[in-house]
Amino acid sequence: MTRWKRGALIAVCVLVVAYPACWFGLQHTEAYQLAQSFIRTDAEVASLLGPVREVTLPLFASYSFEVSGGTGSAVFEMAVDAEHSQARAFVDLRKRGVWEITDARLVTPGGTSTRLEVPR
Hints:
Layout: H1 3-26, H2 30-41, H3 43-49, E1 52-56, E2 63-68, E3 71-82, E4 86-96, E5 98-107, E6 113-115
Antiparallel strand pairs: 1-3, 2-3, 3-4, 4-5, 5-6
């Protein structure tokens, strides 16, 4: 095996292990827990989809997470499974000492986007 093929194989193996590990760890952060709780209990989500059964972070969804000391930002694309329908929720958060939701929207399978009112 040539040197570059061995290097490429090692890089692929690291990626195969690192990506799911980061995805798993992200689901145990305060930011994700806050976003998930918000979607589960939001009245607008319930009125559009019915009672929420499950909110998950799909393995290959888009997300961003950055923290430095007491500040940070996060964006999650979450799958929402409810009694009457399914949808995607996009939740933006900011940390200034504590995590707070700055923006949230729900996108139905038909493509309708609804901005959710976030607590201030």
